[in-house]
């Protein structure tokens, strides 16, 4: 984006790179965001992106109601999950130059542009708490069961954008990083379920423990609300027969955009990017119920 900047009047962006480092120039200064890190750029903030490695790929979500905040920790207490000290804001960096500059604005879903004869990145200094920021996902302090049962993924929430209805979110940004898994007497992968939230899954690196085959970095899955889903057949058989000793999941970083709202698939994605045979990952599941073991 040479001599061009963008801002949204509609909402806040959460950017999740998967491939390539982003050099994001904002009115507040620069953010260098690598895969494994995230950036949040709020409504109304101008920014421009350079690709330091020539190419990039990743995920982005925009929220139109409220802003991203840290989740309430409740009984977890003072420490855990994403700690405020690990979020970084830019240091002021300005440029004073004449040029043919284009500013693109998204307003009510439409794009508009304006021409300037100078760079708008001319802010010499700033103060306050409405500023873009970045966060390294490797700094996330995981919380998990140390006895039994698979915990709800809400314990892996990095940021949330709550709605006016208590307990529901416009977006929960949830990650599944490397961690120790130690539960006893438990089916350790995510259990089969359906719920009132829409779940958009992505993979930044490594292998996702509920989909060990066919779910690659840069890919995504979408399970809309009340749509049943869970581990594929191979993962089910492996987890059902595994010795339940402590294991460490290394070098993995999956994430989820979870929302109480519905996601609409664009015509382009529907016609070009949908995996038509996705359902077949569950076709190998077998019925293991044995009524002879039923005790009265």
Show the helix and strand layout.
Elements: E1 4-8, E2 12-19, E3 22-26, E4 29-33, E5 37-41, E6 47-51, E7 57-63, E8 87-88, E9 98-107, E10 110-118, E11 133-136, E12 157-162, E13 169-181, E14 198-205, E15 220-223, H1 233-241, E16 247-259, H2 267-272
Features:
single chain, 296 residues, mainly beta, five-stranded antiparallel sheet, 16 strands, 5% helix, elongated
Q: In words, what does this structure look like?
A:
The strands form 4 sheets. Strands 7-2-5-11-8 form a 5-stranded antiparallel β-sheet, with no helix packed on it. A 5-stranded antiparallel β-sheet has the order 12-13-16-14-15, with no helix packed on it. Helix content is 5%, strand content 37%. A hairpin with a 2-residue loop joins β3 (22-26) and β4. The relative contact order is 0.15. The radius of gyration is 22 Å and the shape is elongated. It is mostly beta strands and 296 residues long. The mean pLDDT is 94.
Brief summary of the model shown:
The chain is mainly β. The protein is built from two helices and 16 strands.
Largest sheet: 5 strands, antiparallel
Task: Outline the low-pLDDT stretches.
Answer: none
The structure class reads: mainly beta
> How confident is the prediction overall: mean pLDDT?
94
Strand order, biggest sheet? 7-2-5-11-8
User: What amount of the residues lies in strands?
Assistant: 35-45%
Total helices: the number is 2
Alpha-carbon Rg, integer: 22 Å
How many DSSP-defined strands? 16
User: SSE string, helix = H, strand = E?
Assistant: EEEEEEEEEEEEEEEHEH
Q: State the helical fraction.
A: under 10%
Distance between the termini: 70 Å
3D shape? elongated
